[in-house]
């Protein structure tokens, strides 16, 4: 077993875990806060809401995500999100090779 301690980078996000092939982040968004369109680099990305509600947009399609619903993106897939209410999201970036970016 490995005990992990969060490394806070900003009020919006904190890195929970990172190694050469995977990064796990916690995002905390206030109602109305958004993250503009971007991609996860060469890593596949899984977005897991754990509290609240967000609108997640990728490839021209928007989805209402709440706890119990998640989305998985391929590497380089553009996406954005907006919080409909105060929300917490876990983001997992996984790659066949080393994970780049944040």
Give an overview in words.
This is Cupin. InterPro entries: RmlC-like_jellyroll (IPR014710), RmlC_Cupin_sf (IPR011051). It is a single chain. This protein has 102 residues and is mainly beta. It has a domain of 64 residues: Sandwich (Jelly Rolls). It has no helices and ten strands. A six-stranded antiparallel sheet has the order 1-2-3-10-5-8, with no helix packed on it. Strands 4-9-6-7 form a four-stranded antiparallel sheet, with no helix packed on it. Strand 6 and strand 7 form a beta hairpin. It is globular and about 35 Å long. The model has no long low-confidence stretch (mean pLDDT 87).
Provide a short characterization of the protein structure.
With 102 residues, the chain is mainly β. The chain contains no helices and ten strands. It has strands at residues 7-8, 13-18, 22-29, 34-38, 44-51, 54-58, 61-65, 71-73, 79-83, 87-94.
Quick one: CATH superfamily of the domain at 31-94? Answer: Jelly Rolls
As laid out across the biggest beta sheet, the strand order is 1-2-3-10-5-8
Number of strands: 10
Summarize the helix and strand pattern as letters.
EEEEEEEEEE
Q: How many strands, what sense, and barrel or not for the largest sheet?
A: 6 strands, antiparallel
What gyration radius follows from the Cα positions, in whole Å? 13 Å
Query: Could you tell me the strand content as a percent range?
Result: over 45%
| CATH class term of the domain at 31-94 | Mainly Beta
Ends apart, CA distance between termini: 25 Å
Structural class: mainly beta
Number of helices: 0
């Amino acid at each position: 077993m490995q005990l992990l301690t969060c490394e806070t980078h900003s009020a919006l996000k904190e890195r929970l875990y990172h190694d050469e092939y995977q990064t796990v982040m916690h995002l905390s968004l206030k109602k109305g806060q958004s993250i503009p369109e971007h991609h996860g680099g060469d890593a596949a990305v899984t977005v897991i809401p754990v509290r609240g509600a967000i609108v997640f947009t990728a490839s021209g399609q928007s989805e209402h995500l709440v706890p119990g619903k998640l989305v998985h993106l391929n590497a380089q897939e553009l996406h954005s999100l907006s919080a409909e209410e105060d929300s917490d999201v876990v983001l997992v970036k996984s790659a066949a090779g080393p994970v780049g970016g944040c």
